[in-house]
Design brief:
Blueprint (H helix, E strand, L loop, with lengths): L2 H17 L17 H21 L4 H9 L7 H16 L8 E4 L2 E4 H22 L7 H14 L22 H8 L5
Antiparallel strand pairs: 1-2
Helix pairs in contact: 1-4, 1-5, 2-3, 2-4, 2-5, 5-6, 6-7
Length: 189
């Protein structure tokens, strides 16, 4: 499967998970330390928009970056906000040359294909956060395993700092893929 198909599967799975969050679950704590379910969904909506603008324009204007990273991106319709942002990101990464061009993200300049890989890992990890917080599961083991391998290739020791990635947590090798992904991302499992 190519990178864009992989992102499409992540978006579909994340849409299913966000679509099954009830209004009263948005205040639930998530495995992502200090964040509620609403905070996590807000983050992936802002992140998907940042990735989309980077793929469309090469970088995100500073004032827009600050707004997307810190403001409420959900309003009264979290699922609708996610669908809008993820649809835009899929379209942007599908533009001719988007995967080959250099893009600037808050953590550096990189080829579009690497940015897409980061998006896959980040969004799926946060979809697992939301699922774990709301009594859901992600059953697509192939997708989870693929994201875990991508994370293992991208998350360097320099990224293992509070607020980015905590140290990987111990977990049994035969633990479910969801658990291993969260443990790798530094979540207490």
């Amino acid at each position: 499967m190519n990178e864009l198909e992989l992102l499409q599967r992540v978006v579909e799975e994340t849409t299913r998970v966000v679509g099954n969050v009830s209004d009263d679950q948005y205040g639930n704590a998530s495995p992502c330390a200090g964040w509620t379910v609403r905070d996590v969904v807000n983050h992936i909506v802002g992140g998907a928009t940042i990735f989309a603008i980077s793929a469309e324009q090469g970088s995100v204007p500073e004032e827009e970056l600050g707004r997307l990273a810190g403001d409420d991106n959900l309003g009264t319709d979290p699922l609708g906000a996610w669908k809008t942002a993820s649809t835009r990101a899929l379209a942007a990464f599908g533009l001719p040359g988007a995967l080959e061009q250099m893009v600037v993200l808050p953590f550096g300049e990189m080829p579009g294909a690497l940015a897409l890989s980061i998006a896959v890992f980040d969004v799926l990890t946060h979809a697992v956060d939301v699922a774990a917080s709301t009594g859901q599961h992600i059953a697509d083991t192939e997708l989870l395993e693929t994201a875990l391998v991508m994370g293992e290739q991208m998350v360097t020791p320099e990224l293992r700092v509070p607020g980015v990635f905590d140290p990987a947590q111990p977990v049994a090798a035969d633990a479910p893929a969801e658990t291993r992904l969260l443990a790798f991302a530094g979540r207490k499992v």
